[in-house]
Amino acid sequence: MLILRKADVESLLDGREQDVLDVVGRAYRLHDEGRSALPHSSFLRFPDQPRDRIIALPAFLGGDTKLAGLKWIASFPGNLERGIPRASAALLLNSCDTGVPEALLEASLISARRTAAGAALGALALGVEAAPRGVSLLGCGVINFETLRFLRTAAPSLAEVALFDLDAERAKTFAERAEATFAGLTVTVVDSAAEALAAHRLVALATTAATPYLDLADCRPGTTVLHTSLRDIEPEALLGAQNVVDDVDHVARERTSVHLAEQLAGHRDFIDATIGAVLRDPAALTRDPERVLVYSPFGLGVLDIALADHVRTLALAAGRGVRVDDFLTEAQA
């Protein structure tokens, strides 16, 4: 068993944003080709803690190298008030030949970066601007910081950022960190979600909202909304927009905005395409430059295991991590 701590994962991924984009894009394509097995995620909820949950995401990904594994990720929004991260995660990789567990990785960073890379791929594949100059970020946490990192890699033209967060101090801290991290970036903190939506034709939503609150009326024509937090947009607004998802069956559940829109409409015909189909064939989606497009990725376990395997490969080459040779009994090994 190889155990990789957060420091190992971070050191192996830092500076490899393009590699992560390539790994995530390949996983999306393989999934769209039907070369995956992806059971529905299981949500563990707590009767007296309605905001908290732990989610299990099992997955298999085919291709040249077969992968199987499970991500177990907790979301406790109240952690932010305690001064600790909202999300924590572990990921287990298993052999597809024997089923034996082979690697255990700290996975909160893997989860954040695969989410951000998927958003950046969506921005380029679905946006009306080939070289976007600006982005609006609603929610100033880990996910949107990573989204900004990957947008800057995928779209070096990006130079302006508008920020909004209900916590003004968090937005200010985010702005200072972003300008210190990304050269040539101008960051402006705005006073409302409406102002942020209107500022740029690329918008990223990464909040802890549990119920929809945005109607998209303030968006410019042709805006692309990266809806990674899944529960911000009112279902009526989704029904009036173009919609792309990562997997229809996965995203239309657990009271996401897409799920609520399906219940309201009585069908899923408002979903125009999946991101894997568009990455394989851009003609799979005809973009209307006058309408808002919302990309709602549920977050597929195949992305996690693909990126975890990439990290494991890097770790083995670099001699990183902790080997536990007696994790299994001798008979099992």
UniProtKB/TrEMBL annotation:
Gene3D superfamilies, per the entry: NAD(P)-binding Rossmann-like Domain, ornithine cyclodeaminase, domain 1
UniProt-listed InterPro entries: NAD(P)-bd_dom_sf, ODC_Mu_crystall, ODC_N, SbnB
Signal sequence residues: none
Domain of life: Bacteria
Name listed for the protein in its UniProt record: 2,3-diaminopropionate biosynthesis protein SbnB
Organism: Paractinoplanes aksuensis
